[in-house]
Write the C-alpha cells for this entry.
Amino acid sequence: MDAINTVKSWIGALTDVVLMLLGLAIVCAMLVGGSLPFFGNVVGNIMSLVGDLGKNGLVGLIALGIILWLFANRKMA
C-alpha cells in the first residue's frame, strides 16, 4: 500500500510541474507572440481545444465538466 501512495505522490508532483510549465508557456507566448521553440503554439492549441469542445454542444460541456472535476478534486497523497 505504501508503494501505491509513493506512485500517487510522484504522479501528483509531475502533474504540478506540468501545470506550472503550461502556465509559463502561456505567459511567454502572450509576451513574445507566435509559437515558441520549446513550448510550441500553446495558446493556439488551447483555443483549438476550447473551440472543439464548444462545437460538440452538450458532449463538449460534459467533457469540460469532467476535465475540471479531475483537476479540482486532485489531492496530493
